[in-house]
Design brief:
Number of strands: 13
Distance between the termini: 78 Å
Number of helices: 1
Order of helices and strands: HEEEEEEEEEEEEE
Oligomer: single chain
Largest sheet: 4 strands, antiparallel
Strand order of the largest sheet: 10-9-12-13
Structural class: mainly beta
Radius of gyration: 25 Å
Shape: elongated
């Protein structure tokens, strides 16, 4: 045991014996202008525990930050160091236009809804929920257009790759 301690102390003083730290930031942009995104650091290699030091003095491995560039340094138990610059992107809000084609008669299955999305961070994921006779249920997932649908109220949830979402409500008559 004592030999291991001496070996660790000897390595701490010699940076050439250090293993390069791998610092991988997982970044989620802010969904709404002016809000904060989130950064989580995934640190590998080196010897834990790790000491994290952001430019503002924070020592957290996960934090909420507004859009911008931030530098962070990490030191392992041996004194080996690594650093990375993290870019929290400004998120462009999603916007959507909805095109509704109403049914020709009550009870017919010939309505359709198509959604055109811009902004956010593509690709987009769609979840459609319909209300038939007062019961809400999922109609279909994954597409921006539904066809051959009955009259009713529809809710469309649109998620971008960052996990931000936009909720729309429309009606087919």
């Amino acid at each position: 045991f004592c030999v291991s301690q001496l070996s660790l102390e000897a390595q701490a003083g010699n940076q050439s014996d250090c293993q390069e730290l791998s610092i991988n930031p997982d970044i989620v942009s802010a969904c709404v202008k002016g809000s904060q995104g989130q950064v989580s650091l995934d640190i590998k290699q080196g010897l834990p525990p790790y000491r994290v030091s952001w430019e503002d003095g924070s020592t957290a491995t996960t934090r909420k930050l507004p859009a911008g560039n931030y530098s962070v340094e990490v030191t392992d138990a041996l004194g080996c160091e690594g650093s990375v610059v993290v870019n929290v992107p400004a998120h462009v809000a999603m916007q959507a236009n909805v095109q509704v084609n109403h049914t020709s008669k009550q009870g017919k299955l010939n309505g359709s809804i198509e959604v055109f999305v811009s902004g956010g961070a593509p690709p987009y994921r769609y979840t459609w929920v319909s209300s038939q006779q007062g019961v809400m249920h999922a109609a279909i997932e994954g597409v921006n257009r539904v066809r051959k649908i009955p009259a009713g109220k529809y809710q469309i949830l649109i998620f971008d790759v960052s996990g931000c979402y936009l909720e729309l409500n429309t009606e087919v008559r």
